[in-house]
């Protein structure tokens, strides 16, 4: 099926900017983590970013050369309400910034080893208090969620944002923090307020959703255990507009460009990059989020490690967290892709990967793989690697800094174009 697909989307449009071979990664800052080890990164596009650990959140300052400690550590506090279990006793799996980056939704699995959560804690970053515990509830029944994300790629910057998306094995939905009448709940008195299921769909069985992400306009991409990647328009969570057939490996993480034209899926041993553009029967160019691609799906590109690097990364080390660099503005294009495997942070040049004339692809048959990347090597396993928001790019470096977190340290790297 992939073989007959149109390869035209991979041709470089017009004159491509030459890829600089001399771009180096310069280490700018290294910070020791406060607390009991970093569990996840929550990067902000405004003044601050956050390092989330089991017992609290370390607040760091965003600069054009990376993130730098402010020395502020917000310890999880349940707000003094009796009888409410403290978030400090459970490992945060997901930390989502909301409401102009003043609030953080923290989701912890109900049981260690199981990825599902029955609710989440809402942390007011300015006061350092857990202002409420939310329960996931549908039609009066407690349900679980595997993952949460913002309504759209730039939503965390919206100070009035009160909805977010949720994903479980067979559910895709939107949660609303206001009650059904549209009145904001009095959080101070509510012991464990219930989130309102505002829209979504509970699939009968067998979808085995694992992960999801949103584009700039709120379109949703969902990755599954069977390797399928489904595209949903922001208007319907009931039926996917397009489903990319899997290559067999479970999708553990997905990301999508701001414009919705490219999707990146992470599996244990490779990344898969898919172009969602196609021409419909009326000759219009659309993405697979807004129209049904059918058999017009372009063949994807696979991003892999060379056998030597794969051996160096270790047998047990798996790819995780493949991300595009971060833009939230129409017309701006992501420049790099980054993923983590063991002690390696791997960076691909996006423009190079999507150019079908790229030398990696010349003598390959079937699905083509790209092995051109840069490696950041740390002395411990890496928790997460992500690019800061595009606005932190400086003039001599066209890309914003890369932040690499290990359990006890966080390091910022600048993508330098200097000789």
Automatic annotation (TrEMBL):
InterPro entries linked to this entry: Vid27 (IPR040458), VID27_C (IPR013863), WD40/YVTN_repeat-like_dom_sf (IPR015943)
| Organism of provenance | Ilex paraguariensis
Q: Which Gene3D superfamilies match?
A: YVTN repeat-like/Quinoprotein amine dehydrogenase (2.130.10.10)
PANTHER family listed in its UniProt record: DEM PROTEIN, VACUOLAR IMPORT AND DEGRADATION PROTEIN 27
Q: Name one Pfam family in it.
A: VID27
Check the record and name the SUPFAM superfamilies matching this protein. Answer: Putative isomerase YbhE
Please state what the protein is called: Vacuolar import/degradation Vid27 C-terminal domain-containing protein
Vacuolar import/degradation Vid27 C-terminal domain mapped to chain residues: 89-362
């Amino acid at each position: 099926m992939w073989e007959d697909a149109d390869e035209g989307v991979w041709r470089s449009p017009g004159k491509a900017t030459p890829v600089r071979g001399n771009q180096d990664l310069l280490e700018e800052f290294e910070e020791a983590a406060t607390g009991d080890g970093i569990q996840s990164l929550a990067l902000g596009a405004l003044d601050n970013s956050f390092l989330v650990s089991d017992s609290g959140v370390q607040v760091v300052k965003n600069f054009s050369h990376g993130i730098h400690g402010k020395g502020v550590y917000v310890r999880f506090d349940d707000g003094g309400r009796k009888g409410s279990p403290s978030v400090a006793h459970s490992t945060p799996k997901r930390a989502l910034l909301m409401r102009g980056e003043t609030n953080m939704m923290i989701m912890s699995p109900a049981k260690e080893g199981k990825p599902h959560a029955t609710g989440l804690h809402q942390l007011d970053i300015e006061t350092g208090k857990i202002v409420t515990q939310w329960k996931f509830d549908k039609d009066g029944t407690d349900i679980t969620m595997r993952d949460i994300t913002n309504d759209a790629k730039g939503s965390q910057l919206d100070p009035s944002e009160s909805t977010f998306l949720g994903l479980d094995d067979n559910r895709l939905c939107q949660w609303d923090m206001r009650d059904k009448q549209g009145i904001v709940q009095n959080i101070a008195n509510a012991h464990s307020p219930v989130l309102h299921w505002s829209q979504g769909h509970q699939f009968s069985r067998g979808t085995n959703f694992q992960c999801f992400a949103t584009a700039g306009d709120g379109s949703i991409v969902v990755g599954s255990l069977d390797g399928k990647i489904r595209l949903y328009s922001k208007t319907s969570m009931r039926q996917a507009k397009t489903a990319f057939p899997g290559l067999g490996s479970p999708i553990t993480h997905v990301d999508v460009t701001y414009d919705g034209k490219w999707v990146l899926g992470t599996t244990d041993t490779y990344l898969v990059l898919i172009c969602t553009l196609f021409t419909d029967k009326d000759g219009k160019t659309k993405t697979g989020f807004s129209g049904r691609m059918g058999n017009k799906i372009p063949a994807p590109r696979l991003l892999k490690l060379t056998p030597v690097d794969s051996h160096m990364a270790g047998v047990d080390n798996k790819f995780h967290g493949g991300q595009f660099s971060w833009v939230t503005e129409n017309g701006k294009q992501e420049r790099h892709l980054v993923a983590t495997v063991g002690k390696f942070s791997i960076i691909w040049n996006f423009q190079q990967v999507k150019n079908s004339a790229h030398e990696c692809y010349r003598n390959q048959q079937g699905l083509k793989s790209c092995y051109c990347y840069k490696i950041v090597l740390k002395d411990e396993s890496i928790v997460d690697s992500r690019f800061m928001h595009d606005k932190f790019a400086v003039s001599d470096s066209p890309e914003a800094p890369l932040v690499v977190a290990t359990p006890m340290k966080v390091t910022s790297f600048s993508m330098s174009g200097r000789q």
